[in-house]
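Name: DUF2336 domain-containing protein
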Amino acid sequence: MTGQPGTLPRDSASPESATLLIRSAAMAGAREAARLRARAADWRRDTASRLDDRMRALLDHLLTGMVGEVEARLREDASRMLVSRGDRAGAARLRQARPSAAQRLERAGLLANEPLLAELFARLRQDLIAERLPVRADDDEPSLLARLAQVGDPTVAAAARGLLVAESRRREALAMGDVTASDLPAELHQQLVWRVAAALRDGDTSADRALVEAAGRILAGYDEGERADAQAMRLAFAIDARPQELPALLDEAIGDRRLSLVFAALALSAQVPFDVVRSLAVEPDDERWWLLLRAVDLDPLTMARLALALASADPRRGDQDLPTLLDAANAVSAEEARAELAVLRLPPDFRAAVDALGTGEAA
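Structure predicted for DUF2336 domain-containing protein:
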């Protein structure tokens, strides 16, 4: 890269590099779908292409912990209902039923599916990257969220406090092994609850009714807005950073290791879902991440700082040629990048159908 210090001139890369980046990004969706299929297969059998041991252990911990948490609540609530209805024998059977829900679901091939694995994998990658991000140089200054929690705007302050609480709760839960299913998106949470309920039934009609009621209570108490990702989006909406304010917000959020706020701010600016931004960011070979940064018209220096921070926190990016990638991304106009990423603004089911159709026609 050439030019003045701290700048990445647009003319430093050829148009061919921009074209190659756009072509590679266009194929990234198909690669992502293939990667998710491979992970779902890898969950059940040993293959030559495996998740690393740490990620496999963390995924197993998260998934079995979530199933176990839902199972314990269903057993307790449903058995209590049976006792209140005079069916102590049914309650005893339900409390002592074996095998566990996780074992039954695993045997049936229902313990994990691609959407659930995608969510858990992306969440774990986000957490691992966030904890490795470089520490802010000035440790005496209050953190970004701490400052935002004290601002005069009550909407911003409340959103900042909500994100602080949600992220602290998630980190503590994972560290203590107290995994909760309530941090899943609504559709995945509902699917998990009903699958666990199905795995606990023994064919008794009274027990079935109790399980249905117990599952209903869990679902009624679920609030998707309490999830850390939702809280990050709420804060991004409250801040409502203007284009000229976005670089400073991203820099501070990265320095504060608040990767969720980075993703939320980018999602709001690009008008794409949070989980889409996260999935692009946590995969080192997804060129759509670079197009996303151009789509929000980030200046080259901010792009470089983001790239360097992620590279320092994610060992899988060690073999990347960052100068070349940055130059290629800088050669793409914001309008071109937005056009290439337009499909990411479609509803999730529509996007999945588009990807499936493209994969099928290419086969």
